[in-house]
Amino acid sequence: MHAMQYETTLPADYDMEIIRKRVATRGHLLDDFPGLGLKAYLMRERGAGSPVNSYAPFYLWATAEGMNSFLWGPGFQGIVDDFGRPRVRHWMGLAHGEGPASAATPTAATVRRTPVPDGVAPGRFVADAVADTEDTQSGVVLCALGIDPSRWELVRLTLWAGPAPADGGDRFEVLHLSAPGRAGLLSGRHW
Question: How far apart are CA 145 and CA 60, in angstroms?
Answer without folding.
Answer: 10
